[in-house]
Amino acid sequence: MTTDLTDRPVDLMARHVDVLRGYAQRVLVDEVPLLAHEDLDRAARDNELVRIGTPLGCTEKEMVILVYGDLLNTRPSCECPACRGRRRPS
What is the DSSP letter of 54? Predict the structure, then answer.
């Protein structure tokens, strides 16, 4: 991973988030492990995301939601009141 210092921080964050989402999709949904070089890239992008996002006022929770938000909302629901309340009316 190389960082172009001429890019705006928000643009760099967006690129990191896109790649990290792809890695998360592969590991969590497709259940395909990352190759060694991909895992190193993932770790570097995680660190860079925090390094850029923190001064911009992003909390760790917000950064996690940026990367994993779509994946976290696809969990199966049960019949408990909380899950029933999250379902959309048909």
Answer: T
pLDDT tens digit string along 35-74? 999 999 999 999 999 999 999 999 999 999 999 987 866 5
Asked whether 48 and 19 are in contact (CB, 8 A), the reply is no
Q: pTM score, two decimals?
A: 0.73
Residue 61: CA count within 13 A, CB half-sphere: 0
Domain ranges of the chain: 9-86
How many whole angstroms from its chain centre is CA 31? 16
Comparing C-alpha atoms, which of 58, 52, 68 is closest to residue 20?
68
Under DSSP, the state recorded for 87 is S
